[in-house]
Design brief:
The complex is a heterodimer of chains A (about 350) and B (about 300).
Chain A lengths: L14 H21 L7 H13 L6 H35 L11 H19 L10 H21 L1 E2 L2 E2 L1 H25 L2 H12 L7 H19 L2 H7 L3 H6 L4 H23 L5 H13 L3 H23 L10 H19 L5
Antiparallel strand pairs in A: 1-2
Chain B lengths: L1 H8 L5 E11 L2 E12 L3 E5 L6 H9 L6 E6 L2 E2 L5 H7 E4 L11 H7 L9 H14 L15 H15 L11 E5 L7 H18 L2 E5 L3 H7 L2 E6 L2 E7 H4 L2 H8 L1 E5 L11 E5 L20
Helix pairs in contact in B: 4-6, 5-6
Classes of the chains: A mainly alpha (about 350), B alpha/beta (about 300).
């Protein structure tokens, strides 16, 4: 209210504007993602397809088949992936009270990567008949199990006297991530050239493995996790005062920590198992939101999920069109699309940091 | 006397008690069989030299630290038997220092004090936050980011948050409590007095129990009704502040000579001027006093 403007204190955007913009970005990137691709679908054709689907008309046109069987599951997987990563990033940063935290910190990604690498390299030795392409059930399930297992290990290592020590979790996470990285390094040493390429592509992420069966499962896991995650907003605001002060305000700190880790492990674990590692979204989306809307988690959590989803969809529609008929790895694009956007925001709002 | 009648009215209701509290750290006893009673409607000071166990006693009273022996009772019931939510509705605590992550504004931090209460009309909550900010004179900083403020301003914001937390008795019966660990440490002279005057007004007028760790004995003399004195992890004295803080006791515990200010009394800020004694207070042997319950 004061007439003097203090350094670092520009007016924040109102919550409704931020959430509205998030929804708008998501809808826009969803529409662009629906239209663009190796088989372009014009807005009119898209409209006709939607009419057909709603009217229960049997698929008649190629665009109908392409949209319903290839593009829609891919878009939904993208929404799930972005929402899971964005929300989990905000949860982890809030829980660790550290803006550098991201979902990978608690071992979700490295666990999935190690398990995926093991399946790709050793699976071909021991169970040669198993399918091991991106999005195949074997790879998805082992990667999901790997991410949950490693997260559980990090969580267990951070227990002391019946409480979870966040500082310990940070260090245990870094150590276990390094160990998983070494394991993966050893696997790449063992791998054949083709396996090496598979691992490399898995590590860069892709929505290309989207099939309805897996997408529906991942989507429902993410919906439940994100729904649970959103209820943690007020407690996370209190935890910004420190765990001790939050507990004195009546926050069940230990339960909040468990929920935040569980939500992250399930949502990001399920997504990563299906898409491989999609970097940067979990770190960046919450920062973008905080820069324009302030740190209130009641805005940061939902907006990070919306922005994460929009960014993944935008990156994916570029990934599958710039070098068609081939596809760029998604992880390359999230960085290419995300980093300039992030740097632009940083420049614009640098005084707030 | 208002405070006394309130205490008599419901003897147990208005009591916060430490009963034979023992706190041990590896190789050291931080608190040794400390028993003390704090009464709602009064300002009680916890006094003692550095490292005497003041903050340890405070952390046991707030329930942040589980004692290795003994227990803390609120209204006659063990502190451990309360749910954190129920405690948070009647009791606010301010730590020596609180680091706030992210760029929360002063208003947002003060509004966090309303966390334990069932949400009422948004206007009512905003009113309470504003009045709490006015009480500690930070309302002009409401839209500033907390982390851009000075240490003293931050301290006043956290005090406002604590006031907002126990602003009114809606969801729980019984007296409310304010537990303050060195609330005046970062404050300038004027705000030290404003803050403690506020605490005393709340105690007198609303029956709030205030327990504060203080270093300034003159402030303790002026604003606290009762005090306990810690030395080397033991409670060595307790009672009405003016009776406890005699020059002899001050010399014995702090190792400084206290000279009464001529004409010093209720109206004056200073009661003593101090001059350093010969010995280092921390190395002085603890007076062998049997720790006894202290009655409020």
């Amino acid at each position: 209210m004061s007439a003097v403007s203090w350094p670092g204190e520009r007016r924040r955007w109102p919550a409704r504007a931020v959430l509205g913009l998030g929804v708008l970005l998501l809808v826009a990137s969803f529409l662009v993602g629906s239209a663009r691709g190796a088989y372009a679908i014009s807005p009119l054709q898209l409209w006709a397809v939607v009419g057909d689907v709603l009217g229960g008309v049997a698929p008649s046109s190629p665009e109908h088949l392409v949209f319903m069987n290839i593009r829609l599951p891919r878009l939904l997987l993208g929404v799930a992936a972005g929402a899971a990563l964005g929300l989990s990033g905000a949860l982890m940063q809030g829980l660790f009270r550290n803006p550098l935290a991201d979902p990978g910190l608690i071992g979700v990604s490295s666990g999935a990567a190690l398990a995926a690498g093991t399946t790709i390299v050793l699976g071909s030795l021991w169970f040669p008949e198993m399918p091991r392409t991106l999005g195949s059930w074997t790879l998805v399930l082992t990667a999901f199990a790997g991410s949950l297992g490693v997260t559980l290990l990090v969580y267990t290592l951070s227990q002391q006297d019946g409480a979870t020590r966040v500082g310990l979790m940070l260090l245990a996470g870094i150590a276990i991530n390094a160990l998983a990285g070494a394991g993966l390094g050893y696997l790449t040493f063992l791998a054949t050239d083709e396996q090496l390429r598979n691992i490399q592509f898995w590590l860069l992420g892709s929505l290309g493995g989207a099939r309805w069966s897996a997408v529906l499962l991942v989507f429902s896991i993410v919906v439940v996790s994100v729904g649970t995650g959103l209820t943690l907003a007020r407690p996370l605001n209190a935890i910004a005062l420190g765990e001790a002060q939050a507990a004195l305000l009546g926050v069940p700190v230990e339960r909040i920590k468990r929920f935040a880790v569980l939500v992250t492990a399930l949502a990001v674990g399920a997504v990563t198992a299906t898409t491989g590692i999609i970097g940067f979204i979990g770190l960046m989306a919450p920062h973008c939101v905080r820069l324009v809307a302030g740190p209130d988690h009641r805005i940061v959590l939902p907006s990070s999920a919306l922005l994460g989803a929009a960014l993944v969809l935008a990156a994916d529609s570029v990934a599958r069109t710039v070098v068609q008929p081939a596809e760029l790895p998604l992880g390359v694009l999230t960085a290419f699309v995300g980093v300039p956007f992030f740097l632009l925001l940083l420049r614009h709002f640098r005084s707030r940091l | 006397m208002n405070a006394r009648s309130l205490a008599d009215f419901s003897l147990l209701q208005g009591l916060l008690e430490a009963v034979d509290v023992v706190v041990e750290a590896p190789g050291k006893t931080l608190l040794q069989a400390a028993s003390a009673r704090f009464v709602a409607g009064q300002v009680s000071a916890i006094l003692g030299p550095n490292g005497a166990g003041k903050s340890t006693l405070m952390s046991v009273l707030t329930g942040q630290r589980q004692p290795d022996g003994g227990q803390v009772r609120l209204a006659g019931q063990a502190l451990a038997g309360y749910s954190p939510q129920d405690l948070a509705r009647v009791r606010a605590c301010v730590a020596q220092e609180t680091q706030v992550a992210f760029e929360f504004t002063v208003r947002e931090v003060v509004e966090l004090g309303r966390y334990p209460h069932r949400r009422q009309a948004a206007g009512h909550e905003a009113d309470i936050a504003m009045q709490a900010m006015q009480a500690t004179a930070v309302e002009h900083l409401a839209d500033r980011q907390l982390n851009t403020l000075s240490g003293g301003e931050k301290a006043r914001v956290h005090l406002a948050r604590a006031l907002a937390q126990v602003w009114e008795n809606t969801s729980a019966p019984g007296p409310r409590w304010l537990l303050l660990d060195e609330p005046t440490a970062a404050l300038d002279l004027q705000h030290q007095h404003r803050m403690l005057q506020l605490a005393r007004d709340w105690a007198r007028e609303q029956g709030v129990g205030v327990v504060a760790v203080l270093h300034d004995l003159n402030l303790a003399l002026r604003y606290s009704d009762r005090c306990v004195v810690l030395q080397g992890g033991q409670l060595v004295a307790g009672g009405a502040t003016a009776e406890v803080l005699t020059p002899a006791r001050i010399h014995q515990v702090w190792g400084v000579c206290a000279h009464p200010v001529p004409g010093g009394g209720e109206r004056n800020v200073l009661q003593y001027v101090f001059e350093p004694g010969q010995e280092d207070a921390a190395r002085r042997p603890v007076a062998p006093l049997a720790p006894a319950p202290l009655y409020g």
